[in-house]
Each structure stands twice: as structure tokens, then as C-alpha cells.
Amino acid sequence: MLILVLESSTTSAKAMLYDTAHGVVDTLSRSYSPAVSHQKEVGAQNAHEVFSQTASVGRELCQGQKINLVVTSGTWHNILVTDADFSPLTPAFTWSYNGAAGVANRLRSDDAFCNAFYQRTGCMVHAIYPAFKLMMLKEQGFSLANRRLCCQSSYNTYQLTGQAVMSDCSASGSGLVDVHTRNWDTETLNLLDVQAEQLFELTSYHNPLKLSAHGAKQLGLPEGTPVIPSYPDGALNQVGAGALRPGKMTFSVGTSGALRISTTKPALPQKPSTWCYMSPDSWIIGAATSGACNCIDWFKNLFGNGVTYADLEEQDLNVSDAPLFFPFLFGERCPGWQDAWKGGFLSLRPNHTQKDLYHSVQEGVLFNLYQCYQILCQANGAPDEIHLSGGIMNSRKWMQMCADIFGREMHCAHISNVSMVGAAVLGMKALGCIEKLEDYQHQASEILLPNPTMHQLYAQRFTAYKARYEKNRTIDCTQHISKSSTPIFPILAKKSARKPTS
């Protein structure tokens, strides 16, 4: 049987054909066109354009194929507001949108609120979470009354099926869900003056939908083809890596970075630090950072001067003398959750070269993630295995640096689009091809060993990095937050906000 996987990632539309007997058949990925991006606000996207471009990639890939099931995926921490007819009234605010930093920073001064919110939702008080993006809209005078609230993923599902549903897993990364009951959190909804009826109905992959006439036309498939509601790529990465069993950690270094461990029940330390969301059938605890491959791309575009990544990868430098780099170009998530922090180089001198700076960016991204790893280990114990994936797999040098910094073996699958494979695994479970999601196991094609000498060197540099990090924590981040209350949510043109027709 053949499964079509569609994924609306942060920067591109993706599609995959997956044969339940033989695995990946074909993939197609296309960067979003400029029509997706908001003209002024980083991280704000045109929801209908995202859907249309994702559907277009899927239609192109599956043309002439007999598809038995469609599975969709997207990202966590996304929110948009629509009218009663599901036409978008705001952009889709992605995880990278930082406009709610002022709201979150003000609320963080209330320890009781922060702790109570964290213990209920598994989410920190931070601009990344949709709950605070909605608070921002309210404060700017945007009325949420009689509006519908969803995310890009559930908007895609609605466009394909005509059903206003959202997977509980996707919703758990919003700050609007009680992570213990797996339902909408009444206290947060009351704070927003939002009714549960304004949100999409929570569901799971156990309840497949059907492709509507509108969705069938978008994909070029027969009406009635089964469709699984969208899941977030972070949770699907855990599935696709075969890491749903205890003791296995997934470590993805893509546009952003994340470390995740599966658990059979919510796990929340008394002091807010790591997050806890839902997986398709249980829960995931972890830590995530905003700066990873996006920092690499930033450096290449700004300082690359026409050189290739291969040129930059040629390492002939004194690592111990390289500058330090704070990878907070897009604000900080874990471990300090300071949305307004800025990134930059430390200890920069005239003798440093382009390759020194490039090394420092790679190292700084991993130091941020290693700091998160230490916190996770303190709270939950060290994992038995670490499964590495993401854009980091394109760089042998960066992969080895990762193993050296962590001082751990890295299980490397060398497969692309792990989250899309995870979506296909959900499809196999829905089709009865496997009994449990945990039955899917993916063997690492390589185990990368750390270099003990380099581990010691990086340990010294990490100590210096962490000391500067702790020193900078004393800086009052409020001085960096814009005080402007100018609304940034222009009403989208109705012509780009078509609702599906049956």
C-alpha cells in the first residue's frame, strides 16, 4: 500500500511517497515562494499560501499513483485566527515569531503564575507559545470574540477534509492544553476570554478523516481517500527514529534544535525548565533551541563571500583560540527562556578568519544544546542511546564535533526527512501494517564515536561559554523589547483565504 505524506515545515513544502512494504519511494521538497512570508514580520506566514504550495508539491509527486492514505505533518507552536467561515484573519504565527516577547517578559515576573502555567500545560511562559501570541493580539485591540483559533497544520487538515479538527499532540505545544488531561486548559482559555468551541476539536490518528471534494481537487486524488489529522514534526521525529521506548533520545539539529525523550506519563520538574508535550500515544519531555541550522545559513549568507559550505568545512584552525558564539539570533528558548536575548561573537580578535567564525557558530549551536542536555540528564537520567538527525547530517565535521562535545556515541541513521517517515509510521499503524508504533525500529547505519582529546578541549571551552552565559543572564532583557503597540496583523485579502467547498 502507498502512503502520501505532506509536510508544511518552517521553510518549505514537502511530500513523500512511502510504500508500507518497501519504505520510501520518492520525495519532493520545495522552498516556499516569497508569497508565504509576511512583508515585515519574521515568522509570520500566509496560511493559505503555505497550504496551497504544500498541496501543489503533493499533487506533483503522487500524480498517476494509487494512494491508500494521506498523512500530514507540520510544526509545533503555530497559531492563526480565522473568521467563522475559516478564512484567515491573521498570518500564521510560527515558532520563530517573537512579537509576544513583551507580554511573556512581563508575565515572567509573576513566579506563581509561571509555575502554575507550567505545571498544567508543560509549557514555559515564553513568546514561542501560541497562548501568549493570542494575549499579544488581545492587547493590541484585536478581538478574539466569535473567531476560530487553529494552527497551520489543522488549517491544512480542514482544507483537505472540511473537518475542523486538530491532533491533541499538535495542540499540546500551544500552552492552551492541560498536558495531564490531554484536553483544552480551562484556566488559560478563561484568561484569554476564549471558549473551547472556538478551538478545533481535539482528535488523534486513531480517527482517520476522508478527503473532501475540495481536498481531492487540490491533490488530484479520489474523494474519500482516508486522511490522518496533522501531527507536529517534532513528535514524528521521535516515531521515525524508532525512539518511542524508554532510554532512547532523539537529537535533531535542523532549522532549530531539539532533544527529546519518550515517557509514559507527564514529567515536569518542580522548577520550570524543560518542556513536556504529548506524543501520538504518550508524552515527550525535552528541550529545544531557536538557533541551529538557521544560524549556519545566516553566517553563510552574510559572511560567505561566495564560498561553498565545502570550503568552510575545510578545517585548519586552532580550536582553542576560536571565538565563542551565542546562537540567540532568534531569541533564546531552552534553557533560559529569554525571548529577547541577542546572539553574537565573544572574544573576537583581528587574527580570526572566516573559518574561525564558522567553526564558532557550529560550536555555539551545540554548546546551547549541550547545556540543555545536561539539564535533561539531571532531571531524568542520562539516555542509553542518542539518535542524531537533521541538517547537521550534511556536515561530517559538525557531526564529529557533536559527538566530541557531548562525549557520547551518536547513532546516525543517515536518512532524510525522519519526521515524514514518522508520519508514514502513523499511517502504517492506521492501515493495520504494524500493531504498535513502538514496533517500528530503524537501525543506525553508523555509530559515531567521540574523540576523548577533543572532548576535553571542548569541555574547557564549554566552561568558558557557560560562565559568559551565566554572566549575561543578569542583563535586563526588557531593554531589548520593542515597546510599540502597533498592530502587526493586517487582515488578509479574502481572495487568498478561500474556504473549501464540498
Write the layout of secondary structure elements.
Elements (H helix, E strand, L loop, with lengths): L1 E7 L3 E8 L3 E9 L12 E2 L1 H16 L6 E6 L5 E3 L9 E2 L7 H7 L3 H11 L8 H10 L8 E3 L1 H10 L3 E3 H4 L5 E2 L4 E2 L1 H7 L8 E3 L5 E2 L2 H7 L6 E7 H8 L7 E6 L3 E7 L11 E4 L4 E7 L3 H11 L5 H5 L10 E3 L17 E3 L7 H27 L4 E5 L6 H11 L3 E3 L5 H13 L15 E3 L3 H21 L30
Helix pairs in contact: 1-5, 2-4, 9-14, 10-12, 12-13, 13-15
- CATH homolog superfamily of the largest domain: ATPase, nucleotide binding domain
CATH topology of the largest domain: Nucleotidyltransferase, domain 5
Q: What is the CA-based Rg, rounded?
A: 22 Å
Total number of distinct structural domains: 2
Mind describing the biggest β-sheet?
A: 7 strands, mixed
The number of strands is: 23
Record the strand order, biggest sheet.
Answer: 17-18-16-15-21-22-23
Regions with little confidence, pLDDT below 50 for 5+ residues: 476-486, 488-497
Task: Describe the protein.
The protein is α+β, with helices and mostly antiparallel strands. It folds into 2 domains: 2-235, Nucleotidyltransferase, domain 5, CATH 3.30.420.40; 241-479, ATPase, nucleotide binding domain (Nucleotidyltransferase, domain 5). It has helices at 47-62, 101-107, 111-121, 130-139, 152-161, 168-171, 186-192, 213-219, 233-240, 293-303, 309-313, 354-380, 396-406, 418-430, 452-472, and strands spanning 2-8, 12-19, 23-31, 44-45, 69-74, 80-82, 92-93, 148-150, 165-167, 177-178, 183-184, 201-203, 209-210, 226-232, 248-253, 257-263, 275-278, 283-289, 324-326, 344-346, 385-389, 410-412, 446-448. The chain is globular.
